[in-house]
């Protein structure tokens, strides 16, 4: 079967022929319909995930597919079920790592990978969903959209009318705008270094879009919104300069949530750090997938979408084929795309 392979750090992915092996206890075989591309894959390609010693390896961690086969012990799904594939653990067995063969040798992979025609997945990394659930929604719910909803709802616990600033309007930032809108945040401020996301960000609910290469963020929120601080700041970029500039804007009940990861070894400074003691004490934290709990959260999110309350129109900017994986990665890296889907 065809799969995207990271053979070398900082090199283009190779689309090669990979052999599947027999399912082990607690594993399922999924025929993949569609996979998303997440910022994590860019970090893996750059070797920032501690993965440099494990290449060549497979990758991708949000997808939608159909169960083709199940290993011993699996009870959660059966052949023919439609599933969402996710990197966060849900109910079910945590299996051993899957075994694939590439160029006659074993090749590494996580307990879920999605950038291939088929995938061997641990039972706890798939969640069955109704057959009529749209595939593009399923792919987003594997990571990006679920992380955004969890970050706004569980991690930042945004209250009605609180101000939310989203730093970076890439694949995750765009999903965060949707989540902040759903939580009735006001105003919603989006920050980016490109203007090309402005229309989409505003359509999805952004009240003020700031290009921080052209405008000072603090001045812009003061002159255009009449506010001097922000209740919740979600940082998907983890750019040193922008992080330092925005941390200072936290209100006295402010929560600053890092989703984007700083590069290994990089420092972010807290200027005038005493301000963290204003009010009851501010919060600065990192989140792992917005505490997304697949078995509990996915059924709720699917229902919300079905009811027309969770609107994801416009989030997916590109649908591409596996052979074009490097073009797709470049679009994400250059900030030209929001969410890119790879159709198998
Ligand atoms: Zn992800």
Automatic annotation (TrEMBL):
GO terms for molecular function: oxidoreductase activity; zinc ion binding. Gene3D superfamilies: Medium-chain alcohol dehydrogenases, catalytic domain, NAD(P)-binding Rossmann-like Domain. PROSITE patterns: ADH_ZINC. Pfam families: ADH_N, ADH_zinc_N. Residues 171-303 form the Alcohol dehydrogenase-like C-terminal domain. It comes from the Bacteria. InterPro entries: ADH-like_C, ADH-like_N, ADH_Zn_CS, GroES-like_sf, NAD(P)-bd_dom_sf, Zn_alcohol_dh. The keyword Zinc applies. Keywords: Metal-binding, Oxidoreductase, Zinc. Belongs to the zinc-containing alcohol dehydrogenase family. This is Enoyl reductase (ER) domain-containing protein.
């Amino acid at each position: 079967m065809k799969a995207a392979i990271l053979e070398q750090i900082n090199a283009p992915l190779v689309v090669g022929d990979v052999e599947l092996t027999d399912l082990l206890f607690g594993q399922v075989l999924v025929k993949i319909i569609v996979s998303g591309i997440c910022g994590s894959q860019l970090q893996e390609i750059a070797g920032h995930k501690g993965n440099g010693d494990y290449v060549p390896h497979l990758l991708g961690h949000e997808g939608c597919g159909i169960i083709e086969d199940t290993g011993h012990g699996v009870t959660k799904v059966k052949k023919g079920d439609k599933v969402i594939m996710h990197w966060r653990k849900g109910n079910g067995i945590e299996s051993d790592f899957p075994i694939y063969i590439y160029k006659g040798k074993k090749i590494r992979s996580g307990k879920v990978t999605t950038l291939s025609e088929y995938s061997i997945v641990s039972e706890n990394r798939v969640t069955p969903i109704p057959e009529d659930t749209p595939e593009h929604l399923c792919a987003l719910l594997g990571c990006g959209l679920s992380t955004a909803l969890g970050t706004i709802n569980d991690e930042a616990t945004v209250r009605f009318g609180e101000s939310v600033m989203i730093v970076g309007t890439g694949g995750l930032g765009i999903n965060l705008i949707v989540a902040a809108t759903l939580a009735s945040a006001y105003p919603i401020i989006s920050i980016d270094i490109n203007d090309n996301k402005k229309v989409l960000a505003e359509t999805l609910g952004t009240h003020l879009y700031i290009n921080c290469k052209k405008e000072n963020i603090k001045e812009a929120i003061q002159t255009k919104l009449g506010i001097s601080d922000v209740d919740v700041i979600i940082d998907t970029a983890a750019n040193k300069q922008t992080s330092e500039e925005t941390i200072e804007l936290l209100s006295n009940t402010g929560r600053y949530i890092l989703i984007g990861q700083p590069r290994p070894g990089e420092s972010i400074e807290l200027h005038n750090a005493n301000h963290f003691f204003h009010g009851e004490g501010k919060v600065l934290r990192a989140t792992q997938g917005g505490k997304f709990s697949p078995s509990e959260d996915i059924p709720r999110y699917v229902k919300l979408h079905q009811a027309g309350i969770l609107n994801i129109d416009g989030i997916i900017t590109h649908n591409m084929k596996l052979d074009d994986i490097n073009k797709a990665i470049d679009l994400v890296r250059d900030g030209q795309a929001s969410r890119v889907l790879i159709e198998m």
